[in-house]
Write a structure and sequence with these properties.
The complex is a heterodimer of chains A (90) and B (243).
Chain A: E1 2-7, E2 20-24, H1 28-38, H2 43-46, E3 57-61, E4 64-65, E5 80-85
Parallel strand pairs in A: 1-5
Antiparallel strand pairs in A: 1-2, 3-4, 3-5
Chain B: H1 4-9, H2 11-14, H3 20-29, E1 31-35, H4 41-51, E2 55-59, H5 84-95, E3 100-104, H6 113-117, E4 122-125, H7 130-143, E5 147-153, E6 156-162, H8 188-206, E7 215-220, E8 225-230
Parallel strand pairs in B: 1-2, 1-4, 2-3, 4-5
Antiparallel strand pairs in B: 5-6, 6-7, 7-8
Helix pairs in contact in B: 4-8
The chains are: A alpha+beta (90), B alpha/beta (243).
Chain lengths: 90, 243
């Protein structure tokens, strides 16, 4: 499935500023793995040592929260995944 | 009842059909709890005071520091060293003497939070850390008090409104603990998010407009873009699944 992945601002440092990455994948997890294959520096920002999503990462598919079990969520052609980060400042 | 001075002071917002005199009276009768008098708390408290929300309780344990002044606009250079709640109260009283600004220089905790929020119509999240945000969220749910969340980092911000029992709460999105760190921020960012929170509060109090319930509004100041994400209640949520 051809999917667009929208990256959070802090992740664009790994993509030379590019915000939207085109990838293939059947699930959110596969799509993110393929993004990391293209930009390996991003891996530790997205995933913890156990391979799970970092606690600070939020995933939306077509602007709808994919939580919980984000990585297993299936995607289809034309879907858009937003990878964003929880914010804590005030 | 609005006094002649109030009718004059608020005349321009009373002209707004969604407010009118009835709405203004609702604002005057309202009691709002603001947790935090910093980057978010500054615009929230200033604009709710300007709008005539009758009673604000403001809680913050900090003193004003020079490093606060790039964004915490209710505090000024001469306030460095003062308790933030006292510094804010002084300005807000001068802005609008009609508003009761009650202040508490205390640390919010499991032991005191329930007592502090009891009797208030709503809670504004103007905190600077996640653990206290989650504490407030939990207490808001326990007491059935709407909770107006906001958060910032750098040029980014987000806001969401929690109506206990009806919409997703902050804990619905919880994945696990996050290490705390000093966050970068420029004043214009909490200015935007704080004003969004104040807008939500006013809308809730006057009963107009559509609130950010089950909607996480994400702000990107660098690209001047808002994105609205839909969120849903988590049936396993530790805070709200039972209601």
């Amino acid at each position: 499935m051809a999917v667009k992945v929208h990256l959070h601002l802090t992740l664009r440092q790994f993509t030379n500023g590019q915000e939207i990455i085109d990838v293939e994948g059947m699930t959110v997890g596969e799509c993110l793995k393929n993004v990391v294959k293209k930009y390996p520096g991003m891996e530790s920002s997205l995933f913890g040592k156990n391979g799970k999503l970092s606690n600070i990462v939020e995933i939306y598919v077509n602007l709808q929260s994919a939580y919980p079990n984000e990585l297993a969520k299936q995607v289809k052609d034309g879907d858009e995944i937003h990878v964003t980060m929880m914010l804590a400042g005030g | 009842m609005l006094t002649g001075e109030e009718l004059d002071r608020y005349s321009r917002q009373i002209m707004i059909p969604q407010i009118g005199e009835k709405g203004q009276e609702k604002l005057k009768r309202a009691k709002v709890f603001i947790a935090g008098v910093g980057g978010l708390g500054s615009p929230v408290s200033i604009y709710l005071t300007a709008a005539g929300v009758g009673h604000l309780r403001m809680v913050d344990h900090d003193r004003v520091d020079l490093t606060n002044l790039n964004r915490q606009v209710v505090h000024w250079s001469g306030d460095v060293g003062k308790r933030k709640v006292e510094s804010a109260q002084e300005k807000l009283n001068k802005l609008n003497p009609n508003v009761t600004v009650e202040t508490l220089s205390v640390t919010l905790s499991e032991e005191n939070a329930s007592e502090l929020i009891t009797g208030f119509d709503l809670i504004v999240d103007a905190m600077d850390n996640l653990p206290t945000r989650y504490l407030l969220n939990k207490k808001a749910i326990e007491h059935g008090i709407p909770f107006f969340h906001g958060a910032v980092n750098g040029f980014e911000g987000r806001a969401m409104t929690v109506i206990p029992g009806k919409t997703a709460c902050l804990r619905c999105l919880y994945r696990g603990p996050v290490p705390e760190s000093k966050f970068p921020v420029i004043g214009v960012t909490p200015a935007v998010i704080g004003c969004i929170q104040a807008t939500e509060v006013i809308k809730y109090l006057v009963g107009s407009g559509e609130l950010l319930g089950n909607r996480l509004l994400a702000y990107d100041g660098l690209n001047l873009k808002f994105t609205e994400f839909k969120v849903q209640r988590n049936p396993q949520c530790e805070h709200c699944a039972h209601i």
